[in-house]
Design a protein that fits this description.
Blueprint (H helix, E strand, L loop, with lengths): L1 E5 L4 E10 L2 E8 L8 E2 L17 E2 L11 E8 L20 E5 L13 E2 L5 E2 L1 H6 L1
Antiparallel strand pairs: 1-4, 1-7, 2-3, 2-6, 3-5, 8-9
Length: 133
């Protein structure tokens, strides 16, 4: 499995957690919107640990198994230092987005627990409601 975040120029941090049985574990963190880091989750790759103080990307190591009752949360920290509202749109400098992408192997089908736009808790929001927030 591999995974990375996609955000735009005003984002300063992208974080992903997996929650299992009420326990939330940070599995990915990156600080570079322009060149996001993609991490592999397998039995041979040793990913670096993220460091927020030094703004170094990192991820958990080992196989990242996502089971049926697990929840994946993601969050983008966005600093709007512009003079305009930043809507959710595909404009790197005048819009923002907070999407998670990844590749995996297993029984998941397209659309199973993936897709939609995430709010700060990673909850799926229809696109028309997202722009209203």
């Amino acid at each position: 499995m591999s995974m990375y975040g996609h955000d735009h120029a005003h984002a300063t941090r992208f974080s992903i957690w997996r929650e299992r049985g009420g326990e939330r574990k940070l599995v990915y963190e990156d600080f570079d919107w322009f060149d996001p880091t993609s991490f592999a989750y397998n039995s041979v790759t040793d990913n670096p640990q993220p460091d927020r103080d030094l703004l170094l990307p990192g991820a958990s190591s080992g196989i990242l198994d996502v089971q049926t009752d697990d929840v994946v949360y993601w969050e983008c920290e966005v600093v709007n230092d512009s003079e305009v509202y930043l809507p959710y749109r595909n404009e790197a400098l005048t819009g923002e987005m907070c999407n998670i992408f990844g590749d995996g192997i297993g029984g998941a089908r397209w659309g199973d627990n993936w897709g939609g736009q995430g709010d700060s808790d990673g909850v799926e929001i229809p696109i028309d409601e997202y722009e209203a927030r």
